[in-house]
Amino acid sequence: MFFFFVGGVTQQVRQVLKPGAGRCIVCGSRADLVEYEKVLKLFFIPVWKWPGKEPLMHCNNCDLFFPPSFSLPPPPRESSRSPVSMISDTLRCQFCDRDVDPEFRFCPYCGSAL
């Protein structure tokens, strides 16, 4: 008899503590300071949830969780926008690595979902 196990532990955002608190260490997009929870899934169904120990940074663009100590400085405020700061407010496509307007849901260059 063979038993095939499909499942694992994932992380998901429970509550946003401070939106735009820093930048992602992978794609450079805005990252939020969040409380998170770990979720045990069996056959892709959540079975058990428990809270994480410390707040983490979470990137909405590439769905990465990382410690606040590794975060890049937050993007400049809206009032001090310059051509240089406008570049930091764009998202980066995780597939073709090009700058994309944050209002887009799909990359205009390769068509992947953001």
Automatic annotation (TrEMBL):
Short name of one Pfam family: Zn_ribbon_15
Domain Zinc-ribbon, residue spans: 23-111
Domain of life of the organism encoding this protein: Eukaryota
Name this polypeptide is given: Zinc-ribbon 15 domain-containing protein
